[in-house]
Amino acid sequence: MSTRKPFVGGNWKMNTDLNGAAELAAGVASAVGSDSGVEVACYVPFPYLVSAGQKLGSNVRLGAQDVWTQDNGAFTGEVSTDMLKDCGVTTVLTGHSERRHVIGESDELVGEKTRRALIAGLQAVLCIGETIEQREAGETDAVNERQIRAGLDGVSAEDLKNVVLAYEPVWAIGTGKTATPEDAQDAHKKIRALIGSMYDESAAGAIRIIYGGSMKPGNAPELMAMDDIDGGLIGGASLKADDFGAIIEAATSRV
Ligand code: 13P
After folding, report:
1. Catalytic residue at 105?
2. Contact predicate 167/140, CB 8 Å
3. CATH number at residue 103
4. Which residues form the domain of 77?
């Protein structure tokens, strides 16, 4: 259907505990099994990266939910790319809406984090998306464009190959409300066109754009059937290995 490898990420957010994280990781590893043609990653809370990472096996990427912009040094509470790589992390989220809207990260800081991750050789999953107020004001496309331009500021065409874009409308996150497949497709198509104008057609054709916001086994197939939806970033449903496995299974329809 598409030459883009589907991508499914599980964002565990601030959930699980030491034993639960290892159990969930083991469950995801067995749900994924051998190479299904889908790229799968779990974004694990910092304290459990090492223990859960040991259970994820070689077919699931170990991901972090955030990263700091500087080398090791006097940055109390932050975590550097070197530390993450030391723990086996190969992929990080940047600009998740909870970090933008709850913690207060600016578009510029998200851009710095994205650049930093890429320079360190990590994959960056740059999250973007509008709030309900912005959607109702007709600002969805403008917000996505602003967040993408700032998030990819200074990112070369070569480094863009290590970026996945996650469109996560804020009003759909954790609410049970999902964008319709048509609305999500419309946003993804415009995002891909924007990448074409910022880089070129080949970059636009290659970049994975995944959807996040109340994706579940029941709605994943119809979302993944859309031309420009290359996978999903899953919150709540990634905390159950069976549900997450069913969403990965839905993504195999794109292989
Ligand atoms: P939910 O799947 O719980 O809506 O969360 C989506 C999300 O924020 C993934 O990053």
Report:
1. no
2. no
3. 3.20.20.70
4. 7-254
CA of 73 to the centre of ligand 1 (A): 32
Closest residue by CA, ligand 1 atom 7: 235
Q: Give a yes or no: residue 181 inside a domain.
A: yes
For residue 174, give the ligand 1 atom closest to its CA.
Answer: 4
Q: What is the pTM of this model?
A: 0.97
- Of the residues 96, 98, 112, 188, which is catalytic? 96
Torsion angle, alpha carbons of 142, 143, 144, 146, to 10: 80
What is the identity of the amino acid at 49? Answer: L
Give residues with Cβ within 8 angstroms of 103, minimum separation 6.
Answer: none
- 168 is a catalytic site residue: yes
Spell out the per-residue pLDDT of the chain, length 255, in tens.
578 999 999 999 999 999 999 999 999 999 998 878 999 999 999 999 999 999 999 999 999 999 999 999 999 999 999 999 999 999 999 999 999 999 999 999 999 999 999 999 999 999 999 999 999 999 999 999 999 999 999 999 999 999 999 999 999 999 988 889 999 999 999 999 999 999 999 999 999 999 999 999 999 999 999 999 999 999 999 999 999 999 999 999 998
